[in-house]
Every structure is written in structure tokens, then in C-alpha cells.
Design a protein that fits this description.
Blueprint (H helix, E strand, L loop, with lengths): L1 E6 L3 H12 L4 E5 L12 E2 L1 H9 L3 H7 L1 E3 L1 E2 L8 E2 L10 E3 L2 H14 L3 E4 L2 E7 L4 E7 L2 E12 L6 H5 L6 E2 L4 E9 L7 E6 L2 E7 L5 E6 L10 H12 L5 E11 L2 E3 L4 E2 L2 E3 L5 E2 L7 H20 L9 H25 L4 H16 L1 H12 L31 H4 L6 E4 L6 H9 L3 E4 L13 E6 L5 E6 L1
Parallel strand pairs: 1-2, 1-11, 2-8, 11-20, 22-23
Antiparallel strand pairs: 3-7, 4-7, 5-6, 9-10, 10-11, 12-18, 13-16, 13-17, 14-15, 15-16, 18-21, 19-20, 22-24, 24-25
């Protein structure tokens, strides 16, 4: 019997597999495709995602190869959101193709000992009190494999979710976007540009390798597959020129269906990423939220499988991440309404909101923090808990020259002993979780609310487990 089988070798499944291996848990990854897709559905890495990479010491390649942009958009409004004031070492978005992200994450997972089998399609499952049996169609025919736990990271059409009987309520598509990865002989001058008129909304962003992505939305219901001529005609109507587009490597359409799994845990089956939530890709946050699902699930699953925590710890995954997914769908729907606002009234609404964002920097910063996922905090179960409990930990400097994120590279809990003494019960809890201990002090440049902290236990996903005041 396998300890954990991850179904789906996209960014979410690969990240989860790597997290489990960092904790010493054997993991098998099954993917129905014989080889990774060369096309990149996702292109944008937001600040919290870059922080997640930094927590595992993996950010270097992404920063070296990606295209950084210090601002983002909300609903393709003309007024951009300024990311520079965000409280992070990475106050920018990073254009980085999903195909390359998957390559880097797979290399990491395999180097850590994960087994990845491609061309193995899961067709069904059955679970009991001891484990889950998967039915699989492999290159040599059908077979069955059993695991203590199964993680469905197999996309919006998740076979795992359906076979586990998890409802996926939501709304069907009412508008359709378009996407084209093309060469441009007359590209925009900057890394990104957008335009929105009564004829549609178009965004153009640069990609590593000399290609550009053209993505947007136009009035009406499309008919048939997207063609280069249709893409060119739409861009000309909205922008006034075709940018010299040629040599498409990918043309696609997508809808705004929005659905969320009723539960992220069904016994020994857990769901993450698009298998748990699907939405219109406004703001380019889907991959980011999915990997952060896996970040939350990984340490929990590892602790349970490793015998360091009771199975009830897995219930916290749904409790914490389901509300994040609900917020994601709400934001996506709101932005889709703005992008699809092609009527005179809709254009007036867009203009007004753009003016409000420009006039109120705090509104711009709040929207930017939401897109960046820097605002995510998990409510503590104890109402009397320390105010920092559940919040995201910034990359705090330490007096010895390191940072907190460096302490998190091994995906273990980190106990910050800042010299004020730690209650024996809390210290015992940290030992039970296998925490790494740092004894010392924080550096000088830390947020005000961290200056009075005497000790804190940091979860492997970078959120505060508990804290004490000096």
C-alpha cells in the first residue's frame, strides 16, 4: 500500500508531492497525460507565490527567468494597482509560463524522491476505513493501486472529485474569453498593455522566449475554435492595429463557469487546486491559489501519515482553504462583470471605479493585497489566542543575518525563541511537531506588531501557529 497517491502532475500536484517528500513521506504521482502540455494556461506568479517559493529556497530560477511587473490589474481597469507598497520582499507580479513552472517543480519533486508516472489515467476509486483503492488505466492496461490517502489535483474535471462523490456546485459559463500565444512584429513598448472599449477588452503581455500572450473578452457568443484571423480582427477593433501578430503556437477559448467543491476532504480523499475550485482566470491567480492549497495540505498530511498528529488535523485544511476559494470565486465573478461591461452603463462603471482607485491609494493597496494573497489569515479556533495567530509571516530578518524563510526551507515547523521564555506545554507541542528551533532575536527592520513577540511557532506553510508576547 502506498502512503499517499497524488493524482495530477500539474503545479499543484507536484508541489504537494515535494512537500510530502520534504517531510519524509513516500508519494506516488499519477498523471493521465503521457507528457506535460507545452501550453501554459497560467502565466502570472503573484507575490505570495514568490514567497512560497522563497520558503523552500526555490525562488532563484523564477526570478532570473521571469519578467517582473510592479503593478497589476483589477478587472482590466485602466487604473493599475501599484504593488510596490505591499509588505513583502517581492512587491511585483512575475510573468512566468506554467510549462516552465511545471518543469522546475517536477525536477524538484523527483530530486526529493517523488515517483511520477505519466500516461496513467485514474478512472475511479473506492475507499474504506483503512485506505483508498484507485482504478487506473496504464500503458500496459488497467490495474488497481491502494493508498492510505489520495489527493485529487487533477483539474476542474477531476475524476477523483467525481468518484469520491463530492458535489461541485456553481454556475455555468455565460461569457467566453480568448487567448493567443503569438509572435508580434509590432509589440507594445512595455511588458504589458491593455485596452477596453465597447468592442471588447484585450491585454497583451510579454513572455520569455520572445512570444506575447494576447488574452481578452469580446461581446457575443463565439462559434467554433479560435482562429488567428478572428484574434487579429478583435485586436484591431479594440486596439486599432494588429501588432504584427503571426506564428501562433496556441489559440484557445475559455468560459467563466465558477464552481467550488462542497468539501475539500471526503474521508481519505482530499482535493486541491482546480479540482477544488474553478473560475474565470481574471488576475491570473488560479495557479497561485492552488499551490497555496497544496502548501496548507502538505504539512498536515505529512504530520498525520508520519504519526505526529491525529487524523482530525486534516479537517483544518477544509476549514482554512474553503473560505479562501470562496473569496477567489467572488473576486473572479466581480472582475468578470467589469471586463464584460461593454454597454455605455458598464463603461461608466469602469470609469468611476478607476477614478476611485486612483483617488484612494488605500483602496488600490487593499485590492493589490487581495490579488497577491498577502491578506490571507486563518481565524484561530481560540478567540483568546494571540493576535498574530493564523496570520502570514513576512520574511522577517534575524539578528544572525538569516531570515525566517531560510529557516523554513526544510518544510518543518519553526520555533522562534526570542528570549522571553516559552511555556513548557507550548515547547512540548513544538517538539511533538518536529520543530526546528531558532534561539536569538529578530533584526531591526520588522513590522511593529512583531516587535513585542517573545516566542512564536511558525507552521511550514508560513502562518503563525501560536505566539506569545514578551
Amino acid at each position: 500500500m502506498e502512503d499517499v497517491i497524488v493524482v495530477g502532475a500539474g503545479p499543484v500536484g507536484l508541489w504537494l508531492a515535494a512537500e510530502l517528500r520534504r517531510a519524509g513521506v513516500p508519494v506516488l504521482v499519477l498523471d493521465r497525460l503521457e507528457r506535460p502540455s507545452p501550453h501554459s494556461k497560467a502565466l502570472t506568479l503573484h507575490p505570495r507565490m514568490i514567497e512560497v517559493l522563497a520558503m523552500r529556497g526555490m525562488e532563484k530560477a523564477f526570478l532570473e527567468e521571469g519578467i517582473a511587473l510592479p503593478n497589476g490589474h483589477f478587472g482590466m481597469l485602466e487604473t493599475r494597482l501599484d504593488f510596490r507598497p505591499l509588505p513583502t520582499r517581492h512587491p511585483y507580479t512575475l510573468f512566468f509560463p506554467q510549462a516552465r513552472t511545471e518543469q522546475l517543480l517536477e525536477e524538484s519533486a523527483v530530486a526529493l524522491g517523488a515517483r511520477v508516472l505519466r500516461g496513467h489515467a485514474v478512472t475511479g476509486l473506492a475507499q474504506d476505513s483503512d485506505g483508498v483503492e484507485l482504478s487506473v488505466e496504464g500503458p500496459d492496461g488497467p490495474y488497481a493501486v491502494r493508498a492510505r490517502y489520495v489527493a485529487g489535483c487533477d483539474g476542474a474535471g477531476s475524476t477523483v472529485r467525481r468518484a469520491a462523490g463530492v458535489d461541485f456546485p456553481g454556475t455555468d459559463a455565460t461569457v467566453w474569453g480568448f487567448l493567443g500565444d503569438v509572435r508580434l512584429d509590432d509589440p507594445p513598448s512595455g511588458p504589458a498593455m491593455s485596452a477596453h472599449t465597447v468592442d471588447g477588452g484585450v491585454m497583451v503581455v510579454g513572455m520569455p522566449g520572445g512570444y506575447h500572450r494576447i488574452v481578452g473578452l469580446a461581446p457575443g457568443r463565439p462559434d467554433g475554435d479560435l482562429t488567428l484571423d478572428e484574434l487579429r480582427a478583435t485586436v484591431v477593433r479594440v486596439i486599432g492595429r494588429d501588432l504584427g501578430m503571426r506564428d501562433p503556437v496556441w489559440l484557445s477559448r475559455f468560459g467563466n463557469a465558477a464552481r467550488q467543491a462542497a468539501t475539500y476532504r471526503a474521508g481519505r480523499v482530499l482535493l486541491a487546486g482546480d479540482a477544488a475550485h474553478m473560475h474565470f482566470p481574471t488576475g491570473g491567480v488560479g495557479l497561485n491559489v492552488g499551490v497555496q492549497d497544496a502548501m496548507n495540505l502538505g504539512w498536515r498530511l505529512a504530520a498525520v501519515v508520519g504519526g505526529r498528529a491525529p487524523e482530525a488535523l486534516l479537517d483544518g485544511y477544509h476549514a482554512e482553504r474553503h473560505p479562501v476559494g470562496a473569496d477567489l470565486l467572488e473576486s473572479s465573478k466581480a472582475q468578470t462583470a467589469l471586463i464584460a461591461a461593454f454597454t455605455p452603463e458598464g463603461q461608466a462603471l469602469r470609469t468611476l471605479l478607476g477614478k476611485l482607485i486612483a483617488a484612494h491609494p488605500e483602496l488600490s493597496l487593499d485590492l493589490a493585497a487581495r490579488l497577491a494573497a498577502l491578506n490571507v489569515a486563518y481565524p484561530p479556533a481560540d478567540p483568546g489566542a494571540h493576535p498574530l495567530t493564523g496570520v502570514r509571516v513576512p520574511d522577517l530578518p534575524l539578528r544572525d543575518g538569516r531570515t525566517v524563510y531560510e529557516l523554513l526551507h526544510e518544510a518543518r515547523h519553526v520555533l522562534l525563541d526570542l528570549g522571553a521564555g516559552i511555556p513548557s506545554e507550548a515547547a512540548g507541542h513544538a517538539r511533538d511537531l518536529g520543530a526546528t528551533t531558532y534561539e536569538g532575536a529578530l533584526g531591526d527592520d520588522v513590522p511593529a506588531r512583531w516587535r513585542a513577540v517573545g516566542a512564536a511557532l511558525i507552521r511550514p506553510d508560513g502562518h503563525v501557529h501560536w505566539a506569545t508576547t514578551r
